[in-house]
Write a structure and sequence with these properties.
Residues 22-49 are annotated as: Disordered. Residues 115-244 form the D-alanyl-D-alanine carboxypeptidase-like core domain. One of its GO terms (biological process) is proteolysis. InterPro entries: DD-CPase-like, VanY-like_core_dom, VanY/YodJ_core_dom, Zn_M74/Hedgehog-like. It is a single chain. The protein has a domain at 93-266: 2-Layer Sandwich (Muramoyl-pentapeptide Carboxypeptidase, domain 2). The protein is globular, with a radius of gyration of 36 Å. The chain is α+β, with helices and mostly antiparallel strands. It has helices spanning 2-13, 18-25, 45-53, 119-134, 148-162, 164-170, 204-212, 227-230, 244-253, 257-263, and strands spanning 55-56, 64-67, 70-73, 98-99, 117-118, 140-143, 184-188, 218-222, 235-241, 265-266. It has 10 helices and 10 strands.
Length: 267
């Protein structure tokens, strides 16, 4: 009997355990796929749009030639010509496409240079004045294109009246006036007795212009608080045409034309 029991124990101990058999018969699990994060982060559409707005073709940048120590703009027909105390227009420059915009002026004379603007700017001014009138905003144009010679007369008169130190922050020197581009216009309203004054900025007309001029391609060229950049006093009456795309950026960022050229990328 003892021999039989021993044989049974030997036979049983030689069998494979049931647990091991079950593990071998279980189907293998498919490998788990883990998605790795993309190395390229999608750019939000708003950021993409801003990047597109902050690029500018090379033809819109000043082409400068130094003449007798003075930086002269050699592509003055450029609608984005940056005219300031550091870069000036050629003395003989006069736009070839000057026209008279169909807007009310503060004077009656018809065939004088200050009624004129370049055609693109004149059309935009007409649209701005029309939109203003629809909102019961009454605007008048005061002075558009101004020749180099006329600017000489105005500057000399201002120097005689105020002295040169004060004159240079109030009136541009000849060649350094935006009015010579044919893209600038001074405006006013009855609320300031048709005068050219900083008080225009506090009137309903001045406030409307400040909020809506960019919609027509204009900017307040010499805004308040930016005198250290433009080197001119605050002039809420002085509009400069730059086109809707650039005007929108300048308005939304509350910057000057000088600052715009610092943040935009040349392509």
């Amino acid at each position: 009997m003892k021999k039989w029991i021993c044989c049974c124990l030997i036979i049983v101990s030689g069998c494979q355990p049931f647990g091991s058999l079950e593990q071998e018969q279980q189907p293998s699990k498919p490998p788990v796929q883990v998605e790795e994060p993309s190395s390229k982060t999608p750019i939000p559409s708003s950021e993409t749009k801003e990047q597109e707005e902050l690029v500018l073709e090379e033809r819109f940048w000043n082409q400068i030639e130094v003449q007798n120590g003075v930086k002269v703009i050699m592509n003055p027909d450029n609608v984005l010509a940056l005219v300031n105390k550091e870069q000036q227009l050629p003395a003989d420059y006069k736009p070839a496409d000057l026209v008279i915009p169909n807007v009310p002026f503060t004077f009656k004379e018809t065939n004088i240079e200050k009624r004129h603007m370049r055609s693109e700017a004149a059309k935009a001014l007409e649209e701005l004045f029309t939109a203003a009138k629809q909102q019961q905003i009454e605007l008048y144009a005061v002075s558009g294109y101004r020749s180099y010679e006329r600017q000489q007369q105005l500057f000399a008169s201002e120097v005689q009246r105020l002295g040169e130190e004060k004159a240079v922050v109030a009136v541009a020197m000849p060649g350094k006036s935006e009015h010579q581009t044919g893209l600038a216009i001074d405006i006013t309203s009855p609320n300031v007795q048709y005068a050219i004054t900083p008080a225009f900025g506090d009137t309903p007309e001045g406030q409307w212009v400040a909020q809506h001029a960019h919609e027509f391609g204009f900017i307040i060229r010499y805004p308040k608080g930016k005198e250290h950049i433009t080197k001119y006093q605050y002039e809420p009456w002085h509009l400069r045409y730059v086109g809707k795309k650039v005007a929108k950026v300048i308005y939304e960022k509350q910057i000057t034309l000088e600052e715009y050229f610092q943040i935009v990328k040349k392509i």
